[in-house]
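Why do we care about 3D structure at all? Because function follows from shape, and shape follows, mostly, from sequence. That is the central idea of this module. The next example makes it concrete: a single protein chain, its amino acid sequence, and then its structure expressed as tokens.
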Amino acid sequence: MKHVLLLRFSAMGDVALLAPVVQAFTQRYPNTRITLVTRAKFAVFFEQFPNVCVAGADFDGQHKGLMGLIRLFTDLRRMASFDVLLDAHQNMRSAVLKSLFRLAGVPSFTIDKGRAEKSELTRKTNKIRRQLPHSVDRYACVFDEAGLALHPAKPFQFPSFTTAEAELAAFLNQQSFTYNTPWFGIAPFAQHTQKMWPFERFAPLLEQLYARSPLTIFLFGGGAAEIDQLATLQQQFPQAILVAGKLSMTAELLLISRLRGMLCMDSGNMHLAALSGVPVLSIWGATHPDAGFGPWGQGEEAILQISLDVLPCRPCSVFGNKPCWRGDLACLNDISVETVSARVQQMLH
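And the structure:
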């Protein structure tokens, strides 16, 4: 086998979780190439691996709709001749591309997302609680089924993003802080409210953290609304360094790799930190690590959540996109500032 076509279009954290698998593949099969079809902005996660090419998919533009997918298929066929297609996404777009490549004689293998067992874990009554396979392991299984056995590193660390050294140095030189204090990241946001600890608690949290020991805090996020909230927080704590919107993805990953730890939600930033070899403290609400999305290579020390004995309704969804059955989001609201502060102190010492 000479060339593998790999599909995983989004979301950021899910695409990043392919990195341990792709790295393991390039190490075990150094003479086989991979073309990964994903959004162009995610290419940074794979640029350090040999024999890996990222084909940028533009589903908002030239690859939108059925005709766009046919155009993407045609473009890929022009790029190379593929021996096998591995579908690590399993959605309508990947199904169309698989059908087109099958007509062209390219066999395919598809991820088992475990939808039935995830439904059993998250249903309102008679939940079946068990640790489900991690997304990284599910990705590896697709390769295994294609006869390409591999073993992703656990824990994993992105290769150093040396190309961003100058950009990061210029950013840090503009800040006022002491280099010999621990660097700590805070990423307060996630895609859905049911996965976010109340934002108004971060001000008292920062107050406690700064009072206990010298610390340099970096604030991470993305998008205009999140940046506005973080800017408001920074006004209260001018010594905090706002990273959101200031750096390229490459430079941000380089900065994350130098942190002592990261406080985050069940979010893309959790995965980026864990894949950077950085200890995380992730706060979980409506979702649960048992669904297979926990920080790769880290254990219970990386998780902060209300016990299932206290809130047996958890988890109520896989992705945190469903309304709270209780109506009070106790899974998040009942986690105190003091609890989070104490766990952060454990990470730092």
